[in-house]
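ok new one. same drill as before - structure tokens go in, u give me an amino acid for every spot. 852 of them this time. try not to just spam alanines like last time pls lmao
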């Protein structure tokens, strides 16, 4: 029997022989003046939180306790042993997926790299001959953005407008990192410092792929497709033979270029890939750069379609590399889809169109904007992105917009969208600010997008690159010139920078990598909401209700050609509020609640519109309830108006799907993916054949909306009930439905008070309530709980009601529950509500409800 000591020594020996080592780090605390164990990855903020030095940044007003971190430079250090595998390899790779953000890297005291970009993945070639026998030390010094810029010539010249940067020193637009970390009207200011993924030392592989993507160049009438395989990689051999199931067999030659061995290169498996470095002719084992481009015609192409339009076919292939002697050098499996995407922007009878055409078919886009589902990048955040995909599927999305003030979507998310048929509109990471255009900044951006464009475009779900969020509209409409004291010279600098970055650099890079197969537009929106005619041209961000004085029903009257942003705020459920506020702080006017309400008009705007439709809330819990009902009403009004306006309008993307922390925001999901009333409604509003309430000029209609490509017949029964839930009339008809044409089912008389149920083909039904503000009755509802599956944590809530329950919200007072149906209006009868629980089976006493 082996002793524990022997086993320990055996494990240590194995680790010394490993071809890859993940580095463990120490952190120097600049205030305590001491080194502490840090771990393999993370941020300073997370470390200080989880070590207990600082409290939960999302609770109370603890956000303020983190701001001092930006005042310091932070040092990290690690050691690795030059084991036998490393020594024999001659060339190693220091792999750094993320550096946040102004970093200097040193090896044994020698400077290796300066990094100024959160979005770049670095791979640094290390020569074994330059390393110490035994242990080697790697140090990283990271400066905070404010500290880095405050004395720079660029900052001193003039202030680049950045209204969402809540710091006294505004440097967000000078800094290539997630812009929302500087503060936003739905996010705290947590300017992270660190590295999101483990940093590794790896033996340099004989061949490493920089990127690989397959572009769909054309679809033909005969069902064939012309596609292009495009890749970049480096290898030890100067000539290789490549072989693929779908792209055949061909040879390719590489080239050698001179460069520093500390250049950065890519790994297409990480969340942020990067472009390959020039190869150093001085290293002991030179590597050759290869640019691969191979066209192929698929005679009977199986197409990838968005959800609701067809199947999401994906091709699976492997690129095999052989040297000149026929030896297999490397295998690279990859997945691709064949789909043609075009953006239709044409003059027409209404103005200027904006519509996505996929595989020759115009598709009405339905979905929401995504923000990063957390404040801290890394594997956990990548998983959180992926967990949003089934929530989108459940709500019948076919498109999502990755908003430009956050992060580039991770690989796992893009792959999930490929499988789900969710079209991805992807902004480049610029939002609501003005950006520099000097040579150094543009070179930094070029390195960034050379990583991100091919990685994202490799996915068939990616159908559009947008240059920025609201940068152009901000410059022309938000008064930056006066607010930031920008004279004619400074204005010219900013306008020239915009031209160079968004109208020259970005489109040229998109065209180069995608061979013009992915559309690009320099900004969104293309029109402002200030004048009626603007709604006739291009993309629209309509904020006339929230940031203006428009009534709620204008969501259905002021409709853009493609509505890329619009929305209304609500508070999350009580169990979420309990996670950031004590009971004493749970009212609108406490310091804690104000700290979490980042919108300058937030609570007042909710109160204003909620009173109109639901009356004055008697307490905080009722206010939360009314806030969700008001948000649901606002966005449902908009969606119905947008869909009924097709084909003039061809997209509705509400703001926003998700949250990055627990707070009142515009989201339909809170930060734990709990569904608000809006998400339940979006599921019904986004159905392929939807029954919706349409409001036009203060008149109410129930309409049938279809996005199905083929004509169809639907048998509809409309049942009318009085306020007591007693049926008073019904109508039954069969309607012909055509794509993008609305069918009016019934006009709702303004004097009508009661309920209307619409049943489609005796299979699907939706109940609408037309009840004015009323005092909620004291309902006599007795619940019974039954467990369905203890492993899957599924259960049912059974109850019977004698009178209608209007907008019946069921929830747990102590934990998150997900009900398959919620915020329903229920006619008298027996009801069974299925739900899942997160922690343990709730008791009947833990179940609460609200109604009106």
């Amino acid at each position: 029997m082996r002793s524990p000591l022997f086993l320990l020594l055996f494990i240590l020996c194995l680790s010394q022989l490993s071809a890859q080592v993940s580095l463990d780090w120490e952190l120097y605390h600049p205030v305590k003046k001491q080194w502490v164990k840090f771990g393999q990855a993370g941020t300073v903020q997370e470390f200080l939180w989880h070590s207990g030095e600082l409290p939960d940044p999302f609770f109370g007003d603890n956000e303020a306790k983190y701001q001092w971190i930006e005042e310091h430079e932070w040092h990290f250090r690690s050691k690795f042993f030059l084991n036998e595998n490393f020594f024999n390899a001659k060339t190693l790779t220091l792999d750094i997926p993320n550096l946040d953000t102004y970093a200097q890297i040193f090896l044994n005291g020698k400077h290796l790299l300066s990094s100024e970009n959160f979005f770049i993945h670095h791979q640094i070639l290390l020569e074994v001959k330059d390393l110490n026998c035994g242990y080697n030390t790697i140090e990283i010094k990271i400066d905070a953005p404010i500290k880095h810029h405050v004395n720079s010539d660029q900052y001193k010249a003039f202030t680049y407008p950045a209204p969402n940067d809540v710091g006294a020193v505004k440097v967000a637009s000078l800094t290539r990192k997630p812009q929302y970390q500087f503060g936003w009207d739905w996010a705290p200011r947590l300017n992270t410092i660190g590295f999101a993924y483990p940093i590794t030392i790896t033996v340099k592989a004989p061949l490493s792929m920089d990127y690989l993507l397959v572009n769909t160049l054309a679809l033909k009438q005969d069902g064939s497709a012309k596609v292009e395989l495009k890749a970049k990689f480096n290898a030890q051999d100067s000539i290789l033979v490549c072989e693929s199931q779908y792209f055949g067999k061909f040879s390719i030659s590489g080239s050698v270029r001179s460069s520093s061995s500390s250049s950065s290169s890519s790994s297409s498996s990480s969340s942020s890939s990067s472009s390959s470095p020039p190869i150093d002719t001085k290293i002991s084992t030179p590597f050759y750069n290869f640019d691969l481009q191979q066209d192929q015609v698929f005679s009977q192409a199986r197409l990838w379609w968005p959800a609701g339009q067809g199947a999401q076919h994906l091709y699976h292939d492997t690129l095999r590399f052989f040297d000149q002697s026929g030896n297999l050098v490397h295998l690279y499996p990859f997945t691709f889809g064949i789909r043609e995407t075009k953006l239709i922007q044409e003059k027409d009878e209404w103005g200027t169109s904006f519509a996505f055409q996929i595989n020759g078919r115009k598709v009405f886009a339905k979905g929401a904007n995504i923000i990063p589902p957390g404040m801290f990048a890394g594997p956990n955040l990548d998983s959180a992105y992926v967990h949003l995909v089934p929530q989108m599927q459940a709500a019948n999305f076919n498109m999502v917009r990755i908003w430009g003030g956050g992060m580039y979507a991770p690989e796992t998310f893009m792959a999930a969208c490929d499988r789900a048929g969710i079209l991805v509109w992807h902004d480049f990471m610029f939002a609501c600010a003005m950006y520099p255009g000097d040579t150094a900044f543009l070179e930094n951006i070029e390195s960034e997008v050379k990583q991100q464009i091919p990685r994202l475009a490799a996915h068939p779900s990616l159908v559009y690159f947008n240059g920025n969020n609201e940068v152009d509209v901000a410059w022309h409409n938000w008064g930056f010139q006066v607010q930031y004291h920008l004279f004619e010279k400074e204005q010219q600098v900013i306008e020239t920078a915009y031209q160079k970055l968004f109208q020259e650099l970005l489109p040229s890079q998109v065209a180069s990598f995608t061979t013009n197969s992915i559309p690009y537009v320099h900004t969104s929106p293309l029109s402002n909401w200030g004048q009626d005619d603007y709604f006739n041209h291009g993309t629209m961000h309509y904020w006339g209700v929230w940031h203006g004085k428009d009534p709620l029903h204008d969501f259905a009257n002021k409709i853009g050609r493609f509505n890329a942003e619009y929305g209304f705020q609500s508070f999350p459920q009580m169990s979420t509020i309990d996670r950031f506020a004590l009971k004493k702080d749970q009212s609108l006017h406490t310091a804690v609640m104000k700290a979490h309400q980042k919108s300058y008009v937030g609570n007042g705007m909710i109160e204003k519109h909620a009173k109109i439709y639901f009356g004055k809330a008697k307490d905080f819990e009722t206010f939360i309830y009314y806030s969700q009902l008001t948000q649901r009403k606002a966005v449902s009004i908009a969606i119905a108006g947008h869909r009924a306006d097709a084909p003039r309008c061809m997209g509705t993307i509400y703001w926003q799907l998700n949250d990055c922390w627990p707070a009142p925001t515009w989201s339909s999901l809170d930060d734990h993916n709990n569904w608000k009333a809006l998400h339940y409604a979006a599921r019904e509003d986004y159905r392929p054949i939807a029954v919706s309430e349409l409001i036009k000029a203060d008149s109410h209609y129930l309409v049938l909306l279809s996005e199905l490509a083929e004509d169809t017949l639907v048998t509809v029964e409309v049942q009318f009930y009085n306020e007591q839930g007693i049926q008073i009339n019904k109508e039954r008809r069969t309607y012909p439905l055509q794509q993008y044409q609305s069918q009016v089912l019934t006009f709702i008389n303004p004097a009508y008070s009661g309920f209307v149920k619409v049943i489609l083909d005796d299979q699907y039904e939706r109940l609408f309530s037309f009840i004015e503000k009323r005092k909620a009755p004291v309902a006599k509802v007795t619940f019974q709980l039954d467990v369905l599956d203890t492993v899957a944590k599924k259960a049912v809530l059974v109850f019977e009601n004698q009178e209608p329950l209007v907008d019946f919200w069921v929830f747990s007072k102590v934990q998150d529950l997900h009900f398959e149906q919620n915020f329903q209006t229920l006619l008298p009868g027996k009801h069974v509500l299925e739900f899942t629980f997160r922690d343990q089976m709730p008791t009947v006493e833990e179940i609460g409800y609200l109604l009106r």
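The chain has 16 helices and 44 strands. and btw Confidence is low (pLDDT under 50) at residues 4-16, 258-281.
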